[in-house]
Write a structure and sequence with these properties.
Chain lengths: ~375, ~140
């Protein structure tokens, strides 16, 4: 039996794409991109983070086109991103410059500046709100007017301008966390060079921050359940806006005051405390606090926490534990790579499968002949 | 006014201000478009706080524009799809680089806008601070 290449699917594919359009439009309603970017913040943030491209508008457009399917939306954005030139690299962004909208610590009750809950579902009842079925633009406007016009506000806030001291700086000052010197080695970039092992710290963090939310979360959960780490505690979680600047591309001037401000990006940052036993001189054991780091686009708190756990887990590097094995973690958490590979299995494999079928037939035939 | 401060004000402030300042130049000088407003990416480099090392967080969509006026090149670059603002910022940047007289008169308007932005941000921040937890320690006897 010979194998031949086949064609003939063109019309079927064209009709299939029309069918896809039909599914999106059949109710006769069109969802506006602006409605997605303003009302589906969680999904927009997730898609921006996983696609590694910060643009609320493009993320909302991708979500619309993908009918709300995040893996497809991320695929669309990654594809679009590859058509754009990378024009600049930002000046180094420091999270201490964040305009904080939410900032909590699970480790310390009394932190300088206080625990600021901001917008969070953490303390909500998780009861389905059927009033939203009847929500109108007018009712939303009335609610906003009432909320923003409420009683006079705390004047003390004027002095702060949204900036808060870092919780862990206090532990550093007390010597409970090892102080480390500033490392200004230029980062590696996994979008420009293929990943090789052992991966550098910059590669690990870049892959973790653009990882698929579910995958990053599940692997971090595995770490805590028994694959290598004791219970970590959130030292500080903050959500807010970070300013981004670039140096002038026309001159060699790196004077901060001559930088261009391009805008702010919303991020979630987590500093995770992990107790660790360290062996000192004469075999004396001492308990220290290590810490893992998580930072990702948007308000993606579970992902940022999970990233900080995996950061610390990968530092340990015991390859016999999957969640400490760089290759296991870093090669499997990317949305486009994992969903792309899994979903390609449904694409035509006629030739390879026929070859396998032939092998099965051959071995059957051989065993029948032997028995005969 | 230094570039950092003025781009912060013009980008975060009302778009009308950038349009008005750029309008002062466009009417009086020849402005050549070197690079039309176009989309590109800026890779964000961050310093993580666990080991104080650097890594790339991801890219940001930007609109960038370049113009020349009075022999000086100006760049306008801003997050998102904002072609008009990018053009206006480029014109203003060129005016400052060329040290045109008009720029001296802009300082007051820029500082006033800075004040307005601060007021809005402080007000937003105070709303956020309503969610600050006021712990009460309970009696333990």
């Amino acid at each position: 039996m010979g194998y031949v290449a086949v064609k003939g699917g063109t019309r079927a594919i064209e009709e299939s794409l029309k069918r896809l359009q039909f599914e999106r439009l059949q109710s006769g309603k069109v969802i506006e991109v602006e409605a997605i970017s303003s009302g589906m913040r969680g999904l927009v943030d997730q898609v921006m983070s996983e696609s590694s491209l910060y643009s609320e508008e493009l993320a909302a457009l991708a979500i619309k086109q993908a009918e709300g399917n995040p893996e497809e939306a991320v695929f669309l954005l990654r594809a679009y991103r590859s058509t754009l030139p990378r024009k600049h690299y930002s000046r180094t962004v420091h999270s201490a410059e964040m305009r904080v909208e939410r900032r909590i610590s699970a480790s310390f009750k009394d932190i300088p500046g206080g625990q600021v809950l901001g917008a969070s579902t953490d303390y909500s009842h998780r009861l389905l709100d059927f009033d939203l079925l009847e929500e109108t633009t007018a009712s939303a406007t009335a609610w906003l007017e009432q909320y923003l016009g409420m009683e006079e506000l705390d004047q003390e806030a004027f002095a702060q301008e949204g900036r808060f001291p870092k919780v862990l700086d206090y532990l550093r000052k007390e010597g409970l966390i090892a102080d480390c010197s500033v490392d200004s080695t230029e980062p590696d970039d996994v979008t420009r060079t293929s990943l090789t092992f052992p991966a550098t710290r910059s590669e690990k963090l870049q892959i973790l921050t653009r990882g698929q939310t579910g995958a990053v979360t599940s692997l971090a959960y595995a770490v805590i359940r028994g694959y290598g780490m004791v219970h970590p505690t959130v030292g500080e979680l903050r959500v807010g806006e970070l300013p981004v600047y670039i140096d002038s591309p026309l001159t060699q001037n790196t004077d901060e005051d001559e930088a261009y401000y391009i805008g702010e990006i919303k991020v979630t940052e987590v500093e995770m405390l992990v107790p660790a036993t360290v062996e000192k001189e004469n075999g004396r054991k001492e308990l220290e606090l290590d810490f893992g780091y998580g930072l990702c686009y948007g308000q993606n708190e579970t992902k940022a926490i999970a990233m900080s756990i995996l950061d610390k887990s990968l530092e340990k590097g015991d390859k016999s534990i999957p969640t400490q094995n760089e290759e296991f973690v870093l090669f499997h958490i990317d949305s486009v790579e994992s969903t792309g590979f899994i979903s390609h299995l449904k694409m035509p494999h006629y030739v390879t499968f026929q070859a396998k079928l032939n092998d099965v037939r051959k071995t059957r035939k051989q065993s029948t002949e032997k028995e005969g | 006014m230094k570039r950092k401060q003025r781009t912060e004000i013009l980008t975060a402030g009302a778009p009308d201000l950038a349009a008005a300042l750029a309008g002062d130049i466009i009417g009086r000088y020849q402005v050549d478009l070197i690079e039309e407003p176009n989309h590109g990416l800026v890779m964000v480099k961050v310093r993580e706080t666990a080991q104080q090392s650097l890594f790339y967080l991801g890219e940001v969509l930007v609109t960038e524009c370049k113009v020349r006026t009075n022999g000086a090149i100006g760049i306008g670059i801003v997050k998102g799809d904002q072609p008009e603002l990018a053009y206006n910022l480029a014109v203003i940047d060129a005016a400052y680089t060329a040290e045109l007289d008009e720029t001296a008169a802009w300082t007051a308007a820029l500082l006033a806008e800075h004040e307005r932005i601060q007021t809005v941000r402080n007000s937003e921040h105070m709303q956020v601070l309503k969610t600050r937890v006021d712990f009460e320690t309970m009696d333990t006897d």
